[in-house]
Amino acid sequence: MKKRLKAIKYIIYRETIAEPYGHFISFIGAFIGIGLIGFLNSLNMESADNIFLIGSFGASAVLVYGATNSPLAQPRNLIGGHLISALVGVAVYKILPLNPEIVWLKCALAVSLSIVLMQITKTVHPPGGATALIANIGTAKVKSLGFFYVINPVLMGVLIMLVVALIVNDISKHNTYPYKNTDK
Questions:
Q1: How many whole angstroms separate alpha carbon 62 and alpha carbon 75?
Q2: Over residues 158-166, mean pLDDT
Q3: How far apart are CA 129 and CA 114, in angstroms?
Q4: Where do the H-state alpha helices sit in 96-173?
Q5: Long-range CB contacts (< 8 A, 24+ apart) of 31-36?
Q6: Longest Cα pair distance anywhere in the chain, in angstroms?
Q7: Is the separation of the CB atoms in 116 and 60 below 8 Å?
Q8: Over the stretch 82-119, which tens digit does the pLDDT of each residue have?
Q9: Is residue 10's pLDDT more than 60?
Q10: How far apart are CA 174 and CA 146, in angstroms?
Q11: What number is the average pLDDT over the span 45-62?
């Protein structure tokens, strides 16, 4: 019982960023990272085809700019998780027939296979599941990219977010990215 109360207290009272300066750094990182991806996309495509800004990047921004010490936010996980999931998502989309009645099956298969492969490769990054899902439920423009989806928008977007995270997160003396465990 005491152990359970301790766990509940940890979950409820644990803060990720306690200082206002940390909130500011998170805002700046997310704004620059997502803004840069969107801006570069706007130079090449109409706003209706804004395929660079896939939904999973929003969740990645939360991790790499707001929870920098999480194992799930580290560069290996950010890059590997998205790339593996994008490859799996596109492969599932290409292999299974284009029958709209089995979209649910494609989605379930893409996400579950992505999770297992991220676990095996030790690159678990939860937004990767959404990256695999988007390859199957995205717009016609996203689906038409085929395996190019892995390179652009996924790899290019992840690299932009990583570079911004490396620069912005190290501005703060309280924050380092990638996380360096100094407890050892």
A1: 14
A2: 97
A3: 6
A4: 103-121, 127-137, 140-144, 148-149, 156-168
A5: 32/164, 32/168, 33/57, 33/61, 33/64, 33/65, 33/160, 33/161, 33/164, 33/165, 33/168, 34/58, 34/61, 34/161, 36/160, 36/164
A6: 58
A7: no
A8: 999 999 999 999 999 778 788 999 999 999 999 999 99
A9: no
A10: 42
A11: 80
Tokens linked to 50: 């804004």
The H or E element containing residue 38 is: helix 20-44
Give, in degrees to the nearest 5, the angle at Cα 142 between 157 and 67.
35
Please report, rounded to a whole number, the percentage of residues in the chain having pLDDT higher than 70: 86
**Type of residue numbered 25:** I
Could you give the C-alpha distances from 134 to 8, 62, 70, 106, 150, in angstroms and in order? 34, 18, 24, 11, 11
Q: Is the pLDDT of residue 9 over 70?
A: no
Whole-number pLDDT of residue 183: 61
Tokens linked to 37: 């991806």
Question: Residue 146: which region, alpha, beta or left (left: phi > 0; alpha: psi -120 to 50)?
Answer: left
Token pair recorded at residue 44: 């090449």
**Total-model pTM:** 0.85
More confident residue, 78 or 54: 78
How many helices (H) and strands (E) would you count in the chain?
9, 0
